[in-house]
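Model: Ready when you are.
Researcher: Fold this.
Model:
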Amino acid sequence: MRKQNYTMKKLYLFIVAAAFSQTVILAQSQLLLKGSNETIVPANLSELHPAGRPPLPTVQFFNDVIIENNTSMDQRHVRISVAFNGWLYAAYNTVDTINGNGGITIRTSRDNGNTWNTIDSYSVSGIRYPAFDIVVAGTDTNNMVLFLAGVNENTVSGAYTLYVDKYNAATGAFVGSNYNMQNATSPIYDVALASDYRFPASGASPYSVGLLYSTYGNPSDSIVFLGSSNGGVIWDIRQSVSTTGNFFRKVSIAYGRSASASNGRYFGAWEMIGSASARTGHIYTSRSGSLITSPWIAPVNLDSVSGSMINLCSNPQMAVQYNNIDNDSSSCTAVVLVQRDFNGDGADHDILGFYNKRSHFTNFWTRLDVINASENDVQPDITYDPGADNFVATYYDSTNAHLPCISNPMNLLTPSGWSNISTQYNDQTNLAAAYPRIDINPFNNQPALAWIAELPGISGIAMFDAQYVINGISANTHGGFSTSLYPNPANDAVTIAFGLDKQTHVSYQVYDIAGKLIATRDLGTLNSGNHNEQLEVSTWNNGVYFVRINNGENVITTSMVIAH
């Protein structure tokens, strides 16, 4: 029901991507270096989520990868989502430069973004797709689901439709549209998706999915939350979040949870502008009550906390801490980033924001700065990494054509002290409307990034890159201590192979994705040389695990995927 007259779409099941250019092939060959999923940590690390993390080794970004090399399509507004096992999913909307039809393409990669295959691609005459978002959920390849929420507009009748499509994320098969809402001639401006599958909320089974959208109404525009508490089977939650006599536009949604906020909540942020043509406006936020099914609390005007930001903000993006631990305020930290039009003339934007370290029970919001300089910085995006307890963000420095990647620990001890992971992860500088997007790869706890570059003729093309850890010796070696796991993913047994340069005491522990200790073994004192240890996993649940091997001086923590 996504298309005009609900025409049947043509479904492509993992069609091999069109051949890349020689330049891209060379880039892909270098991307093979990205395969490491090891990180080096001190031997005295006592838990998976320590209060203070050691500095990471050298961070490397490699060659940009084209997600789909199709020059006949103007690709825009790329979205990215990463599954529990590291499989990547990207989607973008398109305009056919020959006939002007609009469409959406969804692609996937199972090799760290090295190659991409098409899951689905459709284009319909007289239909455009102004807004969409994706999220992949599930901790088992047998039940992984890719959700796509989209808005289509009939350019003849002016009718809008909001829909949610489901795909089997393992096979790529289209499952169906399980939510459709036609809105006659009332525009639906924006839509955003989130899921709690890694740390499910109270009442969610097996997890929940949340959707926030903005829509026109007479006399009031509305922000509406839709939720599914049963993994997207039925959208059984609907809450009116806010109404205004002005205009709502961009929306963002995030899930939050901590030890003291173990029920879990959905949080939202959106922009409110005074006229249909206004470039900037106010930023508001709200959240669900004590449960994801509860009514949302009264919205809070965020830009009012700083006199130099009032009515000068746009493009909000939100992230909230989600895990089973508390921050240093016994709550979960929430962050909203925006672009602030410094002079109100569009020439000098800054990336600023707001944070609340007691977000699950108070509206104690404070300003923070990411970059406040004379250059023109726009289009922020932000996510949370529960594996490292960090917020990770990106934005477009349009003055220098750079895409930085930055981070700040969960507790925001220096709220405006963001650390550079990379000042420019993009290789090419042919950017105009990059709108970079970021997600965390749970398999290696590293950010995955997508954005739009420009081709000749003002056509966009979706790009990908990711952060990987290279320690300068080898991807799995530290101080004469080396390790590897195989096969990985595994089905019934895993071999833990490790080498020692001297006689030493060795032990290992295995944690699940939530940080729970699953297995531990003391191997005693071993001689120098190569050793193999068999780990039986045939009865373990599918999912991501972390194997920590300790030689008394150093620990190597390696990601392991079980997929029966």
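Researcher: Now this one.
Model:
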Amino acid sequence: MNNIIPFQKAKNKLTSAEKVGQLFMPAAFINDTEEEILLLENSIKKHHIGGLCFFHSRASAATNFEGKKKVIFNTQSHETLKGLIKRYQKTSKYPLLISIDAEWGLAMRIENTPQYPYCITLGAIQNNDDLIYKVGKNIAKDCKQSGIHWNFSPVVDINNNPNNPVIGYRSFGENKTQIVAKATAFINGTNSEGILTSIKHFPGHGDTATDSHLGLPIITKTKEELLAHELLPFQKIIDYGIDAVMVGHLAVPALSNGKNIPASISKDIIKGILRSEMNFKGLVVSDALNMHSVSKMYPTKGELEWLAFDAGNDILCFTENITEGVKTILEKAEDNQIEESFERIWKLKERAINNAEKDLKELINPDSLNTKLAQKSLTLLKEELSIANFIKEEFSMVTIGKKSDTNFSNSIREKINFATFSTKDFTIEELKNELQNTNNIVLSLFPPQIKPSNNFEIGAEELEYIQELIQTKNVVFYLFGNPYVLNLFSIKKVKTVVVVYQDFEVFQKNAAQHFLGNAEAKGKLPVTIN
């Protein structure tokens, strides 16, 4: 890919229509058909769009909100991605800015690629922000090796609502000071490889119980409360220095003169709060404009694109009506509006594209870093019975969510012999019969889902059985998932609770070493459990 021409030359060379085209960043899907690829290529040529945001497929969560389409997994997705980026770049008159959501690595969008822990796991790590720097750096290297310039990350929303259906595990936690420190470390690591970042979801999506993919969340806090909490991480990182801010689809009446209008199309919030009061000079990018919280409010094609631009967004992400959007903006926008956004976009593109990797290399094996993260994040939440004393007596292990031969159980079995049972192999009634005379239970829970909807997809019968074990047995509880799962139970009678957060092999093996007394639990829960 050729370097991009300098801004001073570009501002005179590009036509007004080409400059407006640069505002648009539609979705590109890795697993598209040839027909769909050709349609996007035609749009790139016709409208000179500025960039693409890559997603897995049209059936992935980012576009298939109700989950009615089946996701087809493609083990060659990463190779397909690299090929498509090259193909789309060749199609474009001007180099495209390529973005992706890679909050925990390319694995967020692409199977068989490196995955790092969720932010909630990193939030448990104490006084080791150098490790979070390395996470940002490793993810940036993988982006670089794939032809991606921009990681829409990190999330700096404060995780202060356990029922949040869309943020939760994507946040570093509920401590705003820790969020700033960890997000800054992640940003520095990312920028060290020349990859752009974007903090999100302004003005703060943490304290909502509505998924903005489906409906419009409304935050009713006062401006003073927001300045002291939700807005503080954004302000601190803006003051420190950040490439871009992504504005979310949530209504915050205290910041928009009492109106229940999405922040992403609110002049009061973007031009007033973000630009004027918080003094942000960088690039503003909208959250995906296909999300139902805004797209269903404005069915007229081109209207939403205009409103988002007129409110102060420089880049319109996941735009679905490019032809009408370009036309409407050209008709309604002042020349200086277009020129200001074009300048911010082009200068960012210059920096990102001129630093891009020319010869793509292999992706990084995450195991070494993930092992260190596992060791530093493991959290001993409660210990009324020491595991050292527990293992002196006979015990059995009950695994929920996976078969009994997990890396956790197998690693322990190398040193200690015990019986293993799993809800994948036994019915609940069979388990009750098998364990009726067993007093000591190691309960290893692998929730099927990281999001809280439908009780993390843990079945009602399994939930009831877990509660029964807690009430009637001596239980040592290892949780390989979102710590908010613990809110589903009364854990007063649990003897010991250990939060592992992830089910990666290295996390399971480290948890086994903790059980055997060979590893310390050095993490601290980054959220409050009821």
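Researcher: Key takeaway?
Model: The longest strand covers residues 440-445.
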